[in-house]
Write a structure and sequence with these properties.
- The protein has about 425 residues and is mainly alpha-helical.
- The chain is built from 16 helices and 17 strands.
- The strands form 7 sheets. It has a 3-stranded antiparallel beta sheet with strand order 3-4-6. The chain has a 3-stranded antiparallel beta sheet with strand order 8-11-12.
- A hairpin with a 2-residue loop joins strand 16 and strand 17.
- It starts with a helix and ends with a helix.
Length: about 425
Amino acid sequence: MQLPESVNQHLELAEKALKDRPKLLELYTNCYPNTLETTLNLAEDGSAFVITGDIAAMWLRDSSAQVKHYLPLAANDPELAQIIEGVITRQLRCILMDPYANAFNEKPINGIWEDETERNPWVWERKYELDSLCYPLELIYKYWKATGKDSVFTYEFQCAARIIVRTIKAEQRHMQASLYRFQRLDGNITDSLSGDGLGTAVNDTGMSWSGFRPSDDACRFGYLIPSNMFAVVVLGYLTEIARSVLKDEGLARMARGLQIEIDNGIQAYGIVEHPVFGRIYAYETDGFGNYNLMDDANVPSLLSIPYLGYAPADDPIYLNTRRFVLSRFNPYYYEGGCARGIGSPHTPPGFVWPIALIMQALTDIEGLETKEILDVLQRTDAGTGFMHEGFHVDDPRQYSRPWFAWANSLFAELIDREMAKERQRN
């Protein structure tokens, strides 16, 4: 599609700001408009379908993250604002269709997976991921704050918001109250839930269950701490929207009560004493005293806690956790001749993800790590001019997903932040 004028003007400003850093400029001018240029399809009804890149499906998570860096321009660009509202409209329709699905088709088609779960031709994949319900709420809230427009708070939004709250609440008692089941008959073991699709047993903690991680891999233990933290944040957003805009005190009380219960659960069950790093947040727990100590590159992650808005970057438990996840104690932290950072069980051993590197920079309060990370990102694009899903720490020519729009958008967000800092210094 033709780029909105505000985007063209923004790119012109970047050319001036980065003129002495040609490689960084190349990456930025490729990555910043990537979502608009290659992944977005506007429908006649004003809605917008956003593919994730080299997979022709729309993830609730990815589509939110792919347009988030355009929010600062939307206040003064009606065309761009309408595009983002179109994305929100499509997301709300998806949630109303099936709040347990993580990814959707543009048109109804025969399923590509042999999954044992409720089937719907509009659903590309029905892996229940708690963060999939959080991302659209974050996008709507931040769009409202960036633009002042309340046009997104439609009847569809109100219905979807209540479904989100009811779904998250039902999954607080997953073993007793949930009807959700998922098994993939023709996939990897990480594509299925044990226990005939119910997942491993969890105790009641106040937290909300998630079958899968943001990587689309099955959770080892059902309480995914970073996703519950994200839920705490966005339920706060929903409480504010319900009171300030909708004047719906009932919805506000529901959201606020759920927020408190989940946060109490995180604090009671999500913190462990590590022999080296002290009190840290676990990645997952079952509420029975079992913990998974790791971090994954996908967001929400433990590394991204301040970015999500759950705790400040100087919070002592977060700092302990950050040191843990950026160390050899995290089984998915890799070091090599070309890079060091966090990878994922979703990709081969030795692969680090640009998303995690970028998140490390975005949560670097002292600015000591950011320069090195920017240097690494410029040296590891394998000459493509774009971010990838993951690349090998010793050979960036080995990479996964040549077209991964989420990583491109997050990179653009980082560079926007760095350019803003430079303007402030000057």
